[in-house]
Backbone:
């Protein structure tokens, strides 16, 4: 490894990149803009579920009951219908995603001290949303039932309402939210977005770096020179890693200043982790670039390889522990998951290497492993 | 735009022959790129399969730690109710501090802390409290875990309360509202369907943006576009041929995904007409390709077009409604995403496959998409023409 | 060529039994080669002969399947072995400036190559200054490489290859696509450097006139060495004479001559025949016999040039291989009567500005139907821009044009159906096969299946693509690609053909065939052809020429007109044969005859007073111990016209005073 030669390659690469104004602009603009768009726009809370009511009872009680749904911020009321078949249509057209069917004799039965079953129809195309909606329905029913029971118990046993309530629900649950005390979506989203944008944008920077030279023929300068494989690869990756490192700081600043996410951990730890990760992600692009022979293939493969596993297997949306076995395995073979732990840990938990050393080690293994594979793949004396 | 297609016999025949020649060329070129082909195939087969079997967005197996200060019948009963699929009991910790340390490490997500005298209090009809500590670094999942926990403990509490009154389940003479759910279109709430279909939609979209865009920029970069511009081909034909070719290729891939993975392996229904589905898929590809072509006309090399399309594709993937419901997104996102063809295509796909919807129900998204596609393609054409004048 | 000191130590390069295969296709099949220190060793041969593969293998950037390659005594059989010699060699791959970085400036390109080779900064500064000086690129130091002309790119490529002072330079077709003035420059620089540093050079070329600059050369064809030796030795392999004369009717004459002679070329009104006969009078007699009664006028008898010899060798080889298979397919014999002598292309005061830079400045000319019109000029003179405007790729800033009877500003659509275009940058699809490319263009021009089949056959025969049909275009040698590109431009039988440097990188046989076809298209089918070139030998084929310089059309006329006018303006041409042409040229330039140039091995000087100048030349040269073998006056060639006109204009521009 000769530093001067690495520098020569890196400097050339850097100059070419900076001469391409649009590319350079996008390289810096894209992560920052994504951060803004997703930070503000990517809301994962399920709210405002559109629903309709079919009230077959038409009583004060049934109105009171349905009112609980209409008032809830989780549901968005789209109207009453008179005919069950109308609900079919609304669900099929996706005008509504849930429907409440209040049976006849609703008030009568409850007043008589009998249980009533209320049917909800849910659109199951988005199972997660259906599941969450189901939870909301159950919670509203539980609350409504509790009020009924308190009434009922205090009336039948002649107790004060307060006492009745204690009897009906003797157990209170105190929930404490850790690390993100107000459970802000942005707090958990923004650090993960640092991972996401880096993981998607930095491979794309390196993806064309080698295949472009193969296409034009300037790769022969490299082949015919004394530059070693390692020097070439290092020189190729450094400028792009540098761009991504700048982006790390831009994203960090945005997270702290724009989104007011607390940074509780160690900056040094975060920086080292980010550096390793940047090399991993840029390395993915470089590997693709070495493997394919056209820029088109390099672009598309890199984009898909970088983006989809990151959306699915990185812990961005779904914790890795929730994944199926095959997907979990895939997640472990992809650096994004480890970095997600590092970013979220550094921002929200305030933990460092003492706790997350394993993730850090995994990233290091990835970076080195990818370097070795690239070294094996690149040959200065090809056969065609 | 369409006005340029000649209608009289011989000239029309030549016009179409030209278009066909160019379209065939695009397909051939793609066919020559072996790594890309292999990858394309992988994307629509194996990778669809993996996401189908592997991914659930619902809370699954949240690791549960328990600090049981009571070790009684009741405490064990409560712990026992925290069950898969939502929770997985990991271990009992000696003290809450040990539990917190594990939460720090990310080794567990929830810590349930049961106080001493838990059983006694419940039996005596006194009120008592348990603590649920939830890791909310992933806020939605944390909230989910908390709400399941609340539901389980609430149920447990009210049963205990009613039990102290001498009532026990099933409650025949207690006024209460119970929930009966009917989930439509996916009765067992199988996420396999959702995830595999979503993945296919993502793939269709990525390739629909990228393939024609890169193919167009490549012609500019290599200078081959000059030879085409000197020929009687119109810019419209040059652009259209790319879109047609890529649409055909992606449609074939979609068919592979549907008939090779979704139907036989996951038994995803095809309630509507397959023709309608593929026709509208073609429409989606066409419209999405328009976005790519616009990106291609403002860039001059493949590196630029890559970045530019990523710029478009990223938000499309994340905000069109595959990851979070469209309804709960902020208003401005909804406004911007009105320009994302994927947003309409999601409704269309689920509508046709799972709900059996036809044009009568889907006409709105279809019309929107046609307008959007026409607009994008027209704008791209205008830009493309202008570049060479 | 000055004799460099060739020492008899161990060879720099030793190649034996070299075999290179791509998949199943054998491209080099058993080549032996020995190159000594200090030699300029040339590889010549037709496209696809395997020159590039051989050079890459020697440079250690391509593995090979059989035989052995030894460089500096090291056996190159692995990447590791190749690495050991790379510091000592420099490699310039084929393709005009393709290995340079377009976005970097001239200086940045040089710096990159130097730093890659760890040239110390101080030496770099020094060498850079020297090389930029002798290549006259000094004032373009900060210009991005993409904005250089072809000639400048190639000079920059040479600098980048030489910046680490390699002991061995491997240059793959370094002058292909470069205009004659720049090519002369290039060779002067290379030779100077080679002699100063005692460098060994392995170089390939498609220009046979350059081959006389080599100390030794190998002639490759179809992956084998056909002949090796000094240029003289090669030349002596096929002795004979070249006889140039006029005869009418030309077509009849050609027909009769072809029955006997393998090499018959038409150059405008003249015919050019190579005969193996070495006695002038016998040779002429034979020609008269063959023509049986047709007149033979304006006879000129010359020694054959290397190009004639090479073509003759190749023809012999072909003959041996496929005894008598028709070389080129006959184009349509139904010879639809040439259309009236109508005007096919007219440019009137065409102007094109790029920002503040005026690339084309009020250019006017007319091309008639059935005429071949050549636009000559150095790289960057504005030829390509003119063509781009006429074909409708580039809107003009000012002026008008009519193509195929239509106004180019208004009826672009109609024009496009009637013209064929072949652009300078290869613009077919490299990932498609030959057949697929043809079929694509047939489709683009709206041919139906029957027409397509017929044209396909015609193109394959015409362009000599038999055997290449199913090959990917990217795999083809440059010359074959160019022929395919021409074929594609002709697929719809256009009335007007625009060819932008169509023969760059095409080997001599290919070029001759190519021009034969063009002539036939023009004569028999009445196609108007507008062609740009910087092979002056090709310009002779044109009916009329326009010479462009710095965006302006500075001369316009038939080749004979242009030559005559040059003689009127600057006097007749003296051709001087000496035993040391290189030194002689330097001495003459130093003694005030700045316009002296080297044409192959002879020196050319234009002189308004031949008698006095001849005496002066003899005195100067004999005074330095150079033997003057012969001085004679002869008609200037187009190359002489071009070089002297361009030089005069350049001087004018530099002095700022019009002459």
Residues:
């Amino acid at each position: 490894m000769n530093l001067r030669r690495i520098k020569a390659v890196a400097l050339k690469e850097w100059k070419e990149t900076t001469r391409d104004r649009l590319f350079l602009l996008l390289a810096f603009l894209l992560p920052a803009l994504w951060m803004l768009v997703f930070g503000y726009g990517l809301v994962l809370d399920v709210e405002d579920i559109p629903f309709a009511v079919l009230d077959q009872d038409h009583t004060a009680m049934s109105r009171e009951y349905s009112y609980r749904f209409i008032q809830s911020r989780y549901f968005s009321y789209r109207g009453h219908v008179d005919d069950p078949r109308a609900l079919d249509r609304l669900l099929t057209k996706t005008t509504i995603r849930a429907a409440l069917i209040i049976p006849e004799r609703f008030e009568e039965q409850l007043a008589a001290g009998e249980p009533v079953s209320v049917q909800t129809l849910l659109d199951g195309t988005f199972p997660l949303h259906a599941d969450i909606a189901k939870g909301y329905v159950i919670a509203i029913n539980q609350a409504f039932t509790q009020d009924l029971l308190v009434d009922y118990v205090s009336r039948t046993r002649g107790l004060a309402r307060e006492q009745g309530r204690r009897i009906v629900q003797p157990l209170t649950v105190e929930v404490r939210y850790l690390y993100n005390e107000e459970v802000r979506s942005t707090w958990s989203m923004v650090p993960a977005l640092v991972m996401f944008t880096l993981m998607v944008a930095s491979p794309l920077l390196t993806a064309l770096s080698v295949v472009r030279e193969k296409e034009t023929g300037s790769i022969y300068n490299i082949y015919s020179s004394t530059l070693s494989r390692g020097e070439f690869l290092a020189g190729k990756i450094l400028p792009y890693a540098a761009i991504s490192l700048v982006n790390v700081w831009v994203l960090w600043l945005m997270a702290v200043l724009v989104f007011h996410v607390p940074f509780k951990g160690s900056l040094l730890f975060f920086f080292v982790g980010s550096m390793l990760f940047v090399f991993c992600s840029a390395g993915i692009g470089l590997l693709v670039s070495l493997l394919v022979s056209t820029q088109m293939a390099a672009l598309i493969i890199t984009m898909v390889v970088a983006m989809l596993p990151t959306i699915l297997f990185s812990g961005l949306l779904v914790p890795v522990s929730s994944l199926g076995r095959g997907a979990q395995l895939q997640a472990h073979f992809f650096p994004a998951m480890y970095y997600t732990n590092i970013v979220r840990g550094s921002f929200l938990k305030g933990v460092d290497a003492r706790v997350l050393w394993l993730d850090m080690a995994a990233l290091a293994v990835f970076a080195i492993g990818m370097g070795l594979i690239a070294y094996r793949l690149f040959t200065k004396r090809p056969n065609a | 735009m369409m006005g340029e297609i000649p209608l009289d016999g011989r000239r029309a025949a030549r016009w179409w022959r030209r278009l066909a020649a160019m379209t065939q060329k695009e397909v051939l070129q793609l066919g020559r790129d072996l790594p890309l082909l292999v990858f394309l195939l992988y994307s629509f087969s194996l990778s669809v399969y993996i996401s189908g079997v592997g991914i659930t967005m619902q809370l699954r197996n949240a690791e549960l730690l328990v600090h049981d200060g009571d070790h009684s019948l009741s405490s064990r009963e409560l712990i026992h109710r925290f069950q898969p699929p939502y929770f997985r009991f990991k271990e009992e910790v000696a003290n809450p501090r040990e539990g917190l340390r594990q939460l720090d490490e990310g080794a567990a997500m929830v810590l349930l802390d049961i106080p001493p005298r838990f059983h006694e209090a419940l039996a005596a009809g006194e009120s008592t409290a348990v603590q649920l500590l939830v890791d909310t670094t992933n806020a939605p999942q944390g909230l989910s875990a908390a709400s399941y926990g609340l539901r389980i403990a609430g149920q447990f509490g009210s049963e205990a309360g009613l039990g102290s009154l001498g009532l026990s389940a099933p409650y025949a003479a207690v006024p209460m509202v119970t929930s009966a759910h009917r989930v439509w279109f996916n009765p067992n709430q199988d996420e396999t369907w959702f995830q595999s279909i979503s993945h296919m939609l993502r793939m269709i979209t990525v390739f629909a943006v990228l393939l024609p865009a890169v193919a167009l920029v490549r012609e500019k970069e290599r200078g081959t576009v000059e030879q085409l511009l000197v020929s009687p081909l119109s810019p419209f034909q040059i652009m259209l041929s790319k879109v047609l070719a890529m649409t055909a290729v992606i449609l074939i891939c979609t068919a592979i995904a549907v008939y090779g993975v979704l139907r036989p392996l996951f038994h995803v229904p095809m309630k509507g007409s397959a023709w309608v589905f593929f026709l509208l898929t073609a429409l989606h590809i066409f419209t999405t390709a328009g976005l790519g072509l616009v990106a291609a006309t403002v860039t001059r090399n493949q590196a630029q077009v890559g970045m530019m399309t990523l710029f478009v594709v990223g938000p499309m993937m994340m905000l069109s409604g595959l990851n979070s419901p469209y309804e709960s997104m902020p208003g401005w996102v909804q406004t911007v995403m009105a320009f994302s063809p994927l947003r309409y295509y999601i409704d269309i796909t689920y509508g046709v496959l799972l709900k059996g919807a036809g044009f009568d129900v889907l006409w709105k998204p279809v019309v929107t998409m046609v307008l959007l596609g026409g607009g994008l393609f027209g704008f791209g054409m205008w830009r493309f023409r202008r570049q060479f004048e | 060529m000055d004799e460099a000191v060739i020492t008899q130590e161990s060879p720099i390069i030793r190649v034996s039994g070299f075999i290179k295969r791509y998949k199943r296709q054998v491209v080099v099949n058993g080549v032996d080669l020995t190159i000594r220190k200090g030699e300029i060793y040339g590889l010549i041969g037709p496209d696809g002969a395997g020159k590039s593969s051989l050079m890459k293998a020697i440079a250690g950037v391509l593995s090979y399947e059989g035989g052995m390659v030894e460089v500096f005594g090291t056996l190159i059989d692995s990447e590791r072995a190749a690495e050991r010699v790379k510091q000592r060699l420099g490699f310039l791959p084929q393709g005009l400036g393709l290995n340079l970085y377009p976005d970097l400036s001239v200086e940045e390109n040089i710096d990159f190559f130097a730093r890659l080779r760890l040239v110390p900064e101080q030496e770099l500064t020094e060498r850079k200054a020297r090389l930029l000086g002798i290549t006259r690129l000094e004032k373009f130091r900060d210009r991005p490489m993409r904005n250089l002309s072809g000639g400048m790119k190639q000079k920059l490529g040479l600098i980048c290859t030489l910046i680490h002072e390699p002991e061995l330079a491997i240059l793959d077709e370094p002058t292909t696509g470069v205009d004659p003035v720049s090519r002369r420059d290039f060779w002067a620089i290379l030779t100077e450097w080679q002699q100063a540093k005692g460098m060994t050079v392995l170089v390939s070329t498609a220009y046979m006139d350059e081959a006389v600059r080599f100390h030794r050369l190998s002639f490759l064809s179809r992956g084998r060495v056909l002949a090796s030796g000094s240029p003289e030795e090669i030349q002596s392999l096929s002795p004979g004479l070249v006889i140039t004369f006029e005869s009418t009717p030309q077509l009849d004459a050609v027909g009769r001559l072809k029955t006997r002679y393998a090499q018959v070329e038409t150059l405008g009104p003249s015919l050019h025949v190579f005969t193996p006969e070495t006695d002038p009078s016998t040779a002429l007699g034979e020609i008269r016999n063959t023509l049986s009664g047709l007149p033979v006028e304006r006879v000129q008898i010359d020694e054959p040039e290397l190009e004639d010899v090479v073509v003759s060798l190749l023809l012999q080889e072909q003959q041996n291989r496929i005894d008598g298979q028709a070389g080129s397919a006959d184009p349509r014999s139904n010879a639809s009567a040439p259309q009236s002598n109508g005007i096919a292309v007219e440019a009137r005061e065409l102007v094109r500005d790029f920002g503040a830079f005026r690339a084309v400045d009020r250019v006017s000319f007319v091309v008639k139907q059935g005429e071949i019109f050549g636009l000559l000029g150095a790289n960057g003179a504005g030829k390509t821009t003119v063509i781009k405007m006429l074909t409708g790729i580039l809107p003009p800033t000012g002026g008008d044009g009519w193509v195929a009877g239509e106004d180019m500003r208004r009826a672009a659509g109609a024009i496009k159906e009637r013209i064929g275009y072949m652009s300078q940058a290869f613009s077919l699809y490299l990932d498609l096969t030959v057949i697929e490319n043809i079929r694509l263009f047939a489709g683009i021009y709206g041919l139906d299946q029957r027409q397509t089949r017929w044209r396909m056959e015609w193109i394959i025969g015409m362009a000599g693509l038999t055997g290449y049909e199913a090959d990917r275009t990217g795999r083809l040698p440059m010359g074959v690609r160019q022929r395919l590109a021409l074929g594609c431009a002709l697929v719809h039988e256009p009335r007007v053909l625009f060819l932008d440097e169509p023969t760059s990188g095409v080997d001599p046989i290919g070029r001759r065939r190519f021009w034969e076809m063009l002539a036939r298209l023009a004569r028999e089918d009445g196609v108007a052809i507008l062609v740009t070139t910087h092979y002056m030998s090709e310009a002779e084929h044109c009916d009329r020429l326009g010479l462009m310089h710095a965006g302006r059309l500075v001369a316009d006329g038939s080749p004979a007109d242009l030559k005559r006018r040059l003689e009127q303006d600057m006097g007749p041409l003296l051709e001087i044969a000496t035993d040391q042409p290189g030194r002689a040229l330097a001495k003459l330039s130093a003694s005030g005859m700045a316009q002296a140039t080297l044409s192959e091995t002879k020196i050319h000087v234009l002189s308004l007073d031949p008698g006095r100048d001849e005496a002066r030349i003899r005195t100067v040269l004999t005074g330095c111990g150079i033997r003057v073998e012969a001085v004679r006056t002869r008609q200037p060639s187009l190359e002489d016209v071009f070089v002297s006109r361009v030089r005069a204009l350049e001087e004018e521009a530099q002095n700022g005073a019009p002459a």
Q: What stands out?
A: Chain C has four domains: 13-229, 235-321, 343-557, 560-655. The longest strand of chain C covers residues 343-354. Residues 180-197 of chain C form the longest helix (18 residues).
